[in-house]
Amino acid sequence: MEDTKAAPITTSAQEVQxxxxxxxxxxxxxxxxQTGRAFATIDMLIPPNxxxxxxxxxxxxxxxxxxxxxxxxxxEAGTYTAAKGSYVVIPKGGIVHSxxxxxxxxxxxxxxxxxxxxxxMFMAIGKPVATGTxxxxxxxDEEVIKKMQVMAAGYGQKLYPPDFLG
Length: 166
What we know:
This protein has helices spanning 32-35, 118-125, 142-153; strands spanning 18-21, 24-30, 40-46, 55-56, 61-68, 70-75, 78-83, 87-90, 97-100, 107-114, 127-129, 158-159. By secondary structure, it is mainly beta.
């Protein structure tokens, strides 16, 4: 029997596509397609006042490493300010959480989801943008919120009203 070993996964800057999701820029560094659905890693640039609203996902872990800047992470368990060098783990189970950049500088975070799947939702709802170009966040009226809730549910996520966590 032959011993087969998986080759390293490599991604060059030229291979990474940046997409705008709710006004943030997300670049999929490695997707579930590349890892056998084990995980995905997303490089995120969060402009001032950016970040996703309250949401939950019961079936995967989500981690954030703050490369630069600062984000405020809110959850049903409390609020945490994650500054440069901080690492945050949102465990499986479905705790409602969000994060927001409350500073005047762009926050740069590295997100990993285990198993993958979240990156597929980002690709479905996002719009391709040039690196360094930020689109304004969509107006979150009732129609847009309902459309996003339906789409998110298809990827194992539940979205909550913006004021859900206070």
